[in-house]
Structure formats: structure tokens, C-alpha cells
Sequence to fold (421 residues):
Amino acid sequence: MKTVLSRQPWFVLLLPLFFVFHGFANNFHYLSLVDVLPLAGMYVAASLLVYFIFRLLLRNNIRAGLFTAFLMGFFFFFGFLFDTLKAYAPYRWMYRYSVLLISFFSISIFLFIILRNSKRSFSQTVFYINLLLICYLLFDTGTILYKGVFNPNANEKITASGPGRIPDGKPKPDIYFLLFDEYAGDIALRQWLSYDNAFNSSFLRSKGFFVAKAPLSNYKFTAFSMASMLNMDYISWYSENKVPKREELVNCGTMVKYNEVTKFLEANGYEIVNNSIFDINKHPAHINQRFLPVNTRLISEETLIYRLSVHFEWWFSKQPVLKRLLPVESREDAVTNIERVIDITMKEPSRKSGRPKFIYSHFMVPHLPTYFDSTGKRLPESFQTYSPYLKVHYDRYINNLQFANYLIRKMVTHIQQQTNN
Fold:
């Protein structure tokens, strides 16, 4: 056994498998094996490609494997390194991308020279790394099996259970839940943007809607608001004065997925139509996605390339090849998603169904950036560019608000006409 583990760099394969399955074990109730297998295959292929390239340069299996492990280790665990330094480093420059990347390239060159000139066999190092990763994989496999056997439905327990029943004979009308993200109230618009939105509020009141005079959000982030709203309850563990952790945002996504409103309505015969940015149990979000499931970002967001693509999205989104390969939402993706939600929502009233319908459509307007003018026509890409001037952002938000008002009037009128109010 020791001979087998000390003579070959099996860790070239074990390292990407450990990275993926450790992430799977930690996020078991948010992922499936079908989700993570393509990710594992992609990372194993990338690791093997790097290994064979340096096998040609170093002309030795062990040395090529060790150098590959160093490169891929930095790639896989960059997020952990960055977050740790950001939390505990005494100086901000220590976790700047420029410092980290220059240090990485410097160490890589130094290590390459050492490995190329060294006469050592590194058998003990290879044995230790192989054995360590095998132990880690066995532990994570045990964790996955335990969670799958003894706690398979933990994510459903985040919310309450026991949907009620609409009494027989009571009407079950179609319900349209149209959410316009980052839509400010009338008082905030007058106070901060000097904009009078009374016309749109008056329109909604004339159509029978209740419009709050002084609306106030309980949460600063959409995920928290939707988790609370769709469960008709406050989030007990929410802390207003801190930036939410990834685990908290994931919990919000789970609360939305297994929410009480859609469970109640489905138990009472409603068809759930999900045109939102969130997954709902048995009704996934119909948005443009990359070739990897969105949930795998719980794992891949720790990698170097993911962190770079987020931090420098403004540059990656302009590269035709890279934006197709990397987790970067291009301008065209964002525009297409908005237009698609508008189109299918407008078609929904004329679609016949044997059951009452609950339609949840989530529009990323007036949320910035700006893609359309006030009548829905596409704007040139220059309107999306960053500006250091706050007034520019205010003007763009007002433009988006006017577009949202246009959609509200158009959709409300159309839906009421098609459904007899």
C-alpha cells in the first residue's frame, strides 16, 4: 500500500475530487450528485491537463504532480485564502489581488526551478499527500452518506409545515405576484431623488390596488425580503447591521424554495408558475444559465477564476470567448432574461389551465444597471458603464423607474382586461 501511494502522484486526481465532494458534503441539502459530477469531471480534466503539460517540462511524474498540486491548490482554495486574509490580516494590502497574484507567480517560478534541479525522489511527500486526501475523501463520503440516510429532508425543515385549506365553494381566482426589484416608495423618491411618482400610484389606486403611503422594507437584500414575504413571517436570525454570510443567503434561497405560500396554494389546487430569479420546489427558475447548474456555485465560487470573474466582471464581460466560459452574466443575458419574463407574463392571461394559477414574475427593474429606455427600447451599452457621479446613477434609476411604471400600467391593464378584472 505504501509503495503504491509513494510512487505515483494520485493526488493530481484526488485533489479536485476532494475539493468538489467536500463542498458537496458541506452543502448536501442544496445540491445533488447530478449537479456536482459535471463539476468534478471538469476539474479533474483541468488538473490532468496541467499535469501533462508540466510532465513534458519537468520530465518526471512526481515533480510534475507536486507542481500541479501547488497550482491547482491555489486555484481551488483561493477564495478561502482571500477571505481569511480579509478577515484577519492587519493590513489591507495583504489581500489585494495584485499582491496575492504576484506572490503566487513568484513562488511558482521559485518552486518550478527547485523541482527541476532537485535530485530528491519526494516519495515521503507524495505518500503523505496521497494518504491525507484519501482520508479526507473517506470522511466526506461518510458525511454525505450520513446526511443522505439520517437527514435527507433537512432543507424542508427550515420552514414550517401544515398548509391550510380554502373552504369548498370559496372562489379561487388567479393570483399575479409581480415584483419590481428595488422599487422605491413615493416619499423616498420625493425626498432623495426629487421625483414625483404620484401618477403611477394614482393609476394603481384607480385599478383597485392598495398603495402604501410610507412603505418601508424590513430587509436590505432581495433574498431576505422574498424569504420573509413568501413565508408570511419575519426571519428570526436576521441581523440588520452586518453583511449577510453566504450561508445566510443560501438559507434564504431554501426558505423561498420551500415557502409556505406556494405550499398552501398548491395544496389547494393552484398551478404554480415561476417566472422569478429563485427556485421554488418542483418549479425551478427559468433563466439563462451556464452549462453548470447554478447551485454548483456554492462550490466553484471558492476558486480563483470565479473570484476574478466577479471582481473584474466589467472586463471579462467584454471578452466574447471568456464570458461564455466563465460565470459572468453578459449584458445580453441580463437583457434577454428581463425581456423573457415580460413576454411570458403578458402571455399568461390568455393561457388556459384547468386549475387556478399563482404567477410569480420577478422583474429586475428599476434595479440598476440601465438596459432600456422608459418605453422598453434597448439602450446602447454606454448607458451601463460605471460613472463616479452620484447624479448619473440617480438619473439612470429614474429612467429605470419610468420603464417599470410603463410595464406596471401595461401589465395591469392587460391582465385585468383578459381576466375580467
